[in-house]
């Protein structure tokens, strides 16, 4: 590691403790992760973008901030400047000026143009991370994301949290 | 996002989690992850720096070809700055920025859609 990552779990524990709260229970999955083989090289791969920064587009109902477990599909042919963002847990000001920092759709299109990857899925899957309940995230949000992505003709999924 | 990754992978889709929150990602233990030493809210780069953003994504995507052990988090080497003082005040956001009981000014989060522009609300409601 070239630098020292911020330990957000420890910091959240300290902050909750200062408020007199029980520690937040982050999702812990010590068991071996499922594994799907990468089918081909990057330059032959079509990539789906999945992002949790609260992206939506005009015409969509925006996410609410009280554990919204919905998803929104966003056309990746549209420029990032047309993408709207809403989220309770990060600074929206810079991201609204350049949505690519949480929803890198312009950059992925450029990587297709330069041949680094073969293609970008026509739609990206967007949701708003920070669902407080891990149980609700797994029961309500995750199946929608899986259904949306498995319906796509893609090779790889790039997941961009905030 | 680690849970999304695990579920997608179980459904047969190879995934890569970009992450600026190493400990959170390590706990969720997704199949493949690429760490960037960036503040939360800047996971995919600094604003208005397309070269930086493309470089970040190339390094992250490379992990699809380099990771062969499930649960690996590679360090892309991408970092916000050599000056690490931004880390002093970084928090997960789950506390809405509250760092002590004295400073607890949180309000209950709204269940109404939170539009970026009023015009978005009109477009959604008129649809």
Commentary on this structure:
- The complex is a heterodimer of chains A (162) and B (127).
- With 162 residues, chain A is an alpha/beta fold.
- Chain A has one domain (42-160).
- In chain A, 27% of the residues lie in helices and 18% in strands.
- Chain A has helices at residues 8-18, 92-97, 105-113, 134-150; strands spanning 46-51, 55-57, 71-75, 83-85, 119-120, 123-127, 156-160.
- In chain A, strands 1, 3, 5, 6 and 7 form a 5-stranded mixed beta sheet that branches.
- The longest helix of chain A is centred in the C-terminal third of the chain and has 17 residues, at 134-150.
- By secondary structure, chain B is of the alpha/beta class.
- Chain B has a domain at 1-88.
- Chain B has 4 helices and 3 strands.
- In chain B, strands 1-2-3 form a 3-stranded parallel beta sheet, sandwiched between helices.
- Chain B starts with a helix and ends with a helix.
- Chains A and B meet through helix 1, strand 1, helix 2, helix 3 and helix 4 of A and helix 1, strand 1, helix 2, helix 3 and strand 3 of B.
- Strand 7 of chain A pairs parallel with strand 1 (15-19) of chain B.
Tally of DSSP β-strands of chain B: 3
Please give the alpha-carbon distance between the first and last residues of chain A. Answer: 20 Å
Biggest interface goes to: A-B, 98 and 85 residues
Structural class of chain B: alpha/beta
The count of domains of chain A is 1
Q: Given the structure, what is the number of helices of chain A?
A: 4
Q: Bin the strand percentage of chain A.
A: 15-25%
Estimate the global geometry of chain A from the Cα principal axes.
globular
List SSEs of chain B in N-to-C order.
HEHEHEH
Helix content of chain A: 25-40%
Largest sheet of chain B: 3 strands, parallel
The spatial strand order of the largest sheet of chain B comes to 1-2-3
> How many distinct beta strands of chain A?
7
The biggest sheet of chain A, with number of strands, parallel, antiparallel or mixed sense and barrel status, is: 5 strands, mixed
Mean of all residue-level pLDDT scores of chain A: 95
Apparent shape of chain B: globular
Order of helix and strand elements from N to C terminus of chain A: HEEEEHHEEHE
Mean pLDDT of chain B: 90
Oligomer: heterodimer
Strand content of chain B: 5-15%
Low-confidence stretches of chain B: 97-101
């Amino acid at each position: 590691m070239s630098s020292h990552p911020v330990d957000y779990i420890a910091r959240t524990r300290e902050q909750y403790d200062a408020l007199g709260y029980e520690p937040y229970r982050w999702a812990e999955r010590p068991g071996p992760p499922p594994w799907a083989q990468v089918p081909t090289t990057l330059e032959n791969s079509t990539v789906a973008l999945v992002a949790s920064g609260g992206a939506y587009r005009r015409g969509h109902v925006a996410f609410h901030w009280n554990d919204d477990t919905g998803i929104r599909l966003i056309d990746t042919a549209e420029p990032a400047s047309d993408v709207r963002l809403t989220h309770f847990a990060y600074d929206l000001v810079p991201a609204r000026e350049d949505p690519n920092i949480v929803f890198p759709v312009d950059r992925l299109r450029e990587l297709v143009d330069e041949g680094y990857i073969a293609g970008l899925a026509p739609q990206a899957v967007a949701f708003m991370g920070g669902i407080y309940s891990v149980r609700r995230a797994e029961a309500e949000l995750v199946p929608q994301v899986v259904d949306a992505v498995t319906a796509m003709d893609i090779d790889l999924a790039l997941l961009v949290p905030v | 996002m680690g849970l999304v990754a695990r579920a997608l992978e179980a459904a047969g889709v190879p995934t890569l989690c970009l992450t600026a929150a190493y400990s959170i990602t390590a706990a969720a233990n997704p199949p493949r992850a690429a760490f960037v030493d960036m503040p939360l809210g800047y996971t995919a780069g600094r604003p208005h720096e397309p070269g930086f953003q493309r470089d970040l994504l190339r390094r992250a995507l490379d992990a699809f070809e380099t990771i062969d052990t499930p649960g690996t988090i590679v360090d892309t080497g991408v970092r916000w700055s050599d000056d690490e003082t931004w880390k002093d005040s970084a928090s997960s956001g789950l506390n809405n920025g509250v760092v002590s009981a004295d400073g607890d000014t949180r309000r209950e989060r709204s269940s109404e859609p939170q539009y970026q522009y009023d015009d978005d609300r009109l477009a959604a409601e008129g649809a």
